Amino acid sequence: MTETKATYKTGEKSELELMLSARFPLIYVVSPEEEIVESELIAIAQSRKFQIYFWDFTRGWTDDNPRKPGNPMNALERVARASGNQAALFILKDVATLIAPSTSGQITPAQLPLVREIKNLAGEMARDRRTLVLLSDQLRLPLELREETTIIDFSLPTAIEISILINHLVGKKTNLSEPEREQLIKACQGLSRCRISRVLAKCLARTGKVDESAIAAVIEEKRQTIRETGILEFIPVQAGMESVGGLENLKQWVRVRANSFSDAAREYGLPSPKGLLLAGIQGTGKSLSAKTIAAEWKLPLLRLDVGRLFGGLVGESESRVRQVIKLAEAIAPVVLFIDEIDKCFSNSNSDGDSGTSKRVLGTLLTWMQEKTSSVFVVMTANNVEVLPPELIRKGRIDELFWLDLPNQEERAQIFRVHLSRIRPNSEFDFELLASRSDSFSGAEIEQIIYEAMQSGFSRSQEFGIGDLLGAIAGCVPLAQISKEKIAKLIQWAQTNGVKSASITPDSGDKKAIYSEWNA
Questions:
Q1: Edge-to-edge strand order for the sheet containing 88-92?
Q2: pLDDT in tens, 438-456
Q3: What CATH topology corresponds to 235-400?
């Protein structure tokens, strides 16, 4: 099975045209934009003097008169009867759905005749001038056809194509400055041509012009598109690294690369940063750091739900990974956030999923290694020990940071960040709070503050230092509950020389954990 990515181009041969010219017998085109694929196929057929025929399940062949419902076996029989001396394209729109494998990965007895005939045709057409094209919105290919099939994944429109599309749809009905037009084009990246057309038509219907308000409308349409995938989530970000207490080493690393996605960086010859893995103890600010990186760099943030990547059909999970990659690259520059990656990809995973997780990981690793787009991947892991080493090596990510339990100075900063946000006009003894909260994580400190607020609210009084100290005394931190497990993780970070996200000295409590482990 061969797979490639097609781009809708003018002025040069597309991948699809090259494959048709090279007489590939069986091509599987994956695209949500059926109309665009049809247009390119018709243009290629006209330029190459190919005959072209379209078939769908409800109307049959387009050249039938009168048109009648289609029978897929009859459709394949027509292809088989066609002369191999005449260059011809046979486009079957719904057959990919009809032959999609079941959740067990097997085709049913009812599907077998279709799959067998397609396989027979692929062998025959390899020796003549006919080509069979299966058109689908997602990849659902039976294992029986993978050797004979070439897969083409149509890309979403580029910035140049979007600019041409806006000119075509809107013309002179615009009220945008040049910077606003650039913003609109950037906002449209990641949307299909159909969706861009719809949202611009809506703006024209509302005001008769496409103005600055169209940018917000397009961004909302993009949120809807991302939500519909069920895999990606558009996360709004506001506060930058100043909202994180401690982690000064990580903050410095992020700030140094603040302009690394700019045109000036490209002209300098600097490649876009690839990504980070933030590993460490639960509640130490890994997820928060991922969100603040996007805010610091003023980039959109997409959160990938890795668990939802795994579909029931064979090949569906890999197709979903490609869908995520395609969307992220179309929106780039963007931060792609993969939370708790150790729960899905680990050395301890068995092959109970028929190797699906390994194939999905392989697709992800290949992309991370070879990507040139400005998609910055931030992964988090609680138990980094179980991750395969190929996931965390340099070249796929730029750096691995270890987020440890905050020391006393960092705990004071965390208390200050949270309390200054909640009660900006109140004064607290942050040093006292930090000294009493040894081994507490940032998440536990935040929960302590809410517990103190609840105590004060229940008395109809403002909460104070006494409520905070009482909440600290009543909380048993995870570092004490799972001391052995946490000590083991700390030992792993020390042994492997992982870069610390913090540059301040260790607290006495953490030294005690180290000593207990070494003993």
A1: 2-6, 150-154, 26-30, 130-136, 88-92, 51-56, 60-61
A2: 989 889 999 999 999 999 9
A3: Rossmann fold (3.40.50)
